[in-house]
Design brief:
By secondary structure, the chain is α/β, with parallel strands linked by helices. The chain has seven helices and seven strands; from the N terminus they run H-E-H-E-H-E-H-E-H-E-H-E-H-E. The two termini are about 20 Å apart.
Length: about 240
């Protein structure tokens, strides 16, 4: 396995970590369930030297690995787990309220093919070897609407370059957003990172993927009159930048 490059010492993280006070049942889910679902060796505390991990050790076998970045309340992630029981899913989400909501959904759905990293996805990228993921979902990411904050978006080299490194050639990246300027930046930034766009025309953006469950963020967008956009990219054979 190839060791990933060392992460920058002064990496910034922007975004919400906690919202409203958690309900007692949510606190209990965090206390009782989260530790067993965290992938070993990913967090800075567990692996301060950032030693590369064996991706097969996450589930104890060689099943395909898919990732969702920023899973929100977790409805899409649990749905995917149910649709693809032979796939191993990793969800990364720093917003602890969303993590608590997902844990409740896991209990209800009784899915066993899911691991949770409750922090910045770049911490996962730091310790994954090259070409180990087969699909990634980026669904309604934080839009950072102000121009001076566009560099904080996921679709920037700080995220896309390590993402491209850990994706297998032919792996799929799916992006959903209701922000037209996020579409613009995604189409500008993703292909140079080593991806082919499979949905290059506006006519391609209106139809969701097969098996798509509408999320709470999408329903909010529709209520407020914003149109969802669905973009698909495929990792090509270009070496990482």
């Amino acid at each position: 396995m190839t060791a990933p490059p060392s992460p920058p010492e002064n990496r910034n993280f922007y975004g919400r970590i906690k919202g409203k006070t958690l309900r007692p049942v949510q606190k209990r889910h965090l206390e009782e369930d989260l530790a067993a679902l965290r992938p070993v060796g990913v967090s800075q505390q567990d692996n301060p030297d950032r030693t590369v991990i064996d991706p097969h050790a996450i589930f104890g076998d060689d099943r395909p690995l898919w990732l969702e970045v920023g899973f929100g309340g977790g409805e899409h992630l649990v749905h995917q787990c149910q649709m693809h029981p032979d796939v191993g899913f990793i969800g990364c989400e720093p917003y602890i309220n969303g993590v608590a909501m997902l844990l409740g959904k896991i209990r209800q759905a009784n899915v066993a093919n899911l691991r949770i990293h409750p922090w910045d996805v770049r911490e996962l990228f730091d310790v994954l070897p090259d070409q180990c993921l087969e699909r990634v979902f980026l669904l309604y990411p934080d839009p950072w609407p102000k121009t001076r904050h566009h560099r904080r978006r996921f679709v920037t080299p700080d995220y896309l370059d390590p993402l491209a490194r850990v994706l297998k050639p032919g792996a799929v990246l799916r992006v959903a957003t209701d922000i037209p300027d996020y579409v613009r930046q995604t189409l500008e930034e993703v292909p140079p990172a080593g991806f082919d766009c499979l949905t290059p025309a506006p006519a391609d953006w209106a139809t969701p993927w097969d098996g798509w469950p509408s999320t709470r963020y999408e329903q909010k967008a529709l209520r407020e009159g914003r149109a969802p956009h669905y973009l698909t990219f495929r990792r090509n054979d270009a070496p990482p930048r």
